[in-house]
Amino acid sequence: MKVLIVDDDHDVADSLAALVRVVLDYDVCVTYDGREAIEAAGQYRPDVVILDVNMPVLDGLQTARELKRDRRLERATFIAHTAANDPSIETDAADVGFRHLVTKGGSTSISTLIDVLSDVHDSRRRA
């Protein structure tokens, strides 16, 4: 499975990418802002896009809107990834078309994200 990770915090993005590669053995592409993600996604054609919601310039919600306009990504699953504990983010993310919201921080977050990615992979194999 191909996973695009987008986070302006390079350490978070790179650590998450390493985790996904090692634990799940998925192919990973990392970008550090929304504009890079839009440029990379058309060529990379990810199955899953993990987007940091709170990025400068082009946030995760805006980036998701742009990516969803690309027909090559119509089957991609979008996962919002945020450190913010704001209930409105969940509503906003759902309105844009995110299928999942995972809060950053701690082993619970990592475990949840791995579970979500595994579930997406399993559902794609059954389809």
How is the CATH topology named? Rossmann fold
pLDDT < 50 stretches: none
Give the CATH H-level superfamily. Response regulator
How many structural units, i.e. domains? 1
Mean pLDDT across all amino acids = 92
Largest sheet composition: 5 strands, parallel
Helix content: 40-55%
* H/E topology pattern: EHEHEHEHEH
Number of helices: 5
Text of the CATH class? Alpha Beta
Shape-level CATH architecture: 3-Layer(aba) Sandwich
What proportion strand? Answer: 15-25%
Strand order, sheet with most strands: 2-1-3-4-5
**Tell me, what's the shape?**
globular
Number of strands: 5
* Structural Rg: 13 Å
Describe this structure in words.
This protein has 127 residues and is α/β, with parallel strands linked by helices. The chain has one domain (2-126): Rossmann fold, CATH 3.40.50. The protein has helices spanning 10-24, 34-44, 60-68, 87-96, 106-126, and strands at 2-6, 27-31, 48-52, 77-82, 100-103. The chain has a five-stranded parallel beta sheet with strand order 2-1-3-4-5, with helices on both faces. Helix 2 (34-44) runs parallel beside helix 3. The mean pLDDT is 92.
